[in-house]
Amino acid sequence: MKIEELLERARTRLNLAVVYAGNKTDPGIVIHPQKNSRDWKSYKLVAENIAQTLEHEGFSGVAVLAEGRDLAAELARLKIDLVWLNTGGVQGIDPMAHAPSLLEMLGIPYVGHSPLSASLLDNKHVFKSMCLAAALPTARFTVIPPEYEEIDPTDSERFRATFGNYPGPFVVKPVTGRASKNVHFVESADRLKAAVDKVCQQTGHLCLVEEFLPGDEFAISVMGPLIRQAGKFSTLTDAFAFSAVQRVFEPLEKIFTSMDEKPITHERIRILDGQHDRDVVDRMGRLAREVFGYFNLDSLVRLDMRRAANGDLFLLEANPKPDLRRPTDTIASITCSALDHHGLSYQDLIMSIFAERLVQLTQISRGESPISSKLVESAAPLAVAT
Ligand SMILES: Nc1ncnc2c1ncn2[C@@H]1O[C@H](COP(=O)(O)OP(=O)(O)O)[C@@H](O)[C@H]1O
Ligand SMILES: [Mg+2]
Questions:
Q1: What's residue 66's pLDDT?
Q2: The 82-85 sheet, strands edge to edge
């Protein structure tokens, strides 16, 4: 079957919803409000961008729903077949995994990462530990629990084993964060405690202390090999690494300022040139594909990277839900910034992500997928051609 035919069946047979993060202070979202270990954002605007794009592509009545206590009932009431997760969770620990966990339990397929992948990517210390195990480059770090109390965070065997005589500077940040929220530059070890205190109080969760990398900063996105370019699908030989950019810093800016405080305008990112910047683009692409393969990923992530003083490139983090805002004349989205260099429009990207999941759901037999029985008549695995 051709991928277009599969999509046509999906258009006429599936009810879709895009889910954003409900606000714990709104009535009917949670039972007991808790601390947010990960800085909260609703992501509703981007959820609407995704829903509108799917409707533009011929899907009708795409619902936009808040993650919260009534989500399961709403999905049942609207007879939703497939959910696009555009949420970082509502509250609590490992919030990025809450919505995929709920959908796994309900038996509703989704676009997004599994609970395990979402958690291990969103927990920077787990991601970095796995990188170290796979000899993928990442800055040395240690983790401090929130109950470390009054003890000096530098006064431990583990801290000494990690940093030895390294005097700083350091970066102190939550293990699960977003958009540079609660990220601190700390010049020297004797100033660490104040920053660690702040992060622990803010999040009630683990705090990461990391060597500061003083060099240039970059980002690249990576997804599976099925992509749509100018409306036409094809399958690449490897994962698709795209939109390699450098973040443009202002003088004296050490930590990239949060997009909540300073929106990411087109001047804040420099799209890397395949010729002029070939070495770094190749290196970033290789790292991105290695991460995609090693972590057994099956959907989009964006990797943040930064250079050490000697120019070596290190992985800062992998974002399991990169910003997919439809770019405007003024506001950029890092993942969408260089799509045209790869022959994709914003619609092409959304449909590539969607089609990839649809094909996975009709091919992989994780038990009988409720989707495959709607889209495919025969019990045999579907061979989808591009
Ligand atoms: N080890 C580091 N060295 C230098 N800068 C860092 C380091 N870790 C984080 N930063 C800065 O802080 C920003 C946010 O950190 P990051 O790890 O990407 O988390 P998040 O984007 O989830 O807040 C980065 O974009 C970078 O500017
Ligand atoms: Mg980041």
A1: 98
A2: 63-67, 16-21, 82-85, 110-111
